[in-house]
Amino acid sequence: xxxxxxxxxxxxxxxxxxxxxxxxxxxxxxxxxxxxxxxxxxxxxxxxxxxxxxxxxxxxxxxxxxxxxxxxxxxxxxxxxxxxxxxxxxxxxxxxxxxxxxxxxxxxxxxxxx
Length: 114
Known about the structure:
The chain is mostly helical. The protein has four helices and two strands; from the N terminus they run αααββα. Helix 1 packs across helix 2.
């Protein structure tokens, strides 16, 4: 079943919102297959996506039109970011940046942190 869409296109990803963000950010660089996605996410975010999580996220993103499968290369199935996925990622990251800015501003006003 496809997730219901929200204003940013992420839909009701629940616990998969974080992994979905990581996968979309990886695909923003260009098409990748599952193993390449896993390695890239691990490299830039320090997060290792379990195969079950990765393939659930890929399924949800594809069902929502945020990514598209490309023809298989040998046994590997690459995916690419769609225009809707790029827009959704941009809106989502912009909103997350706003949240981070508020949190950092509040911390600076109340706490002395290194």
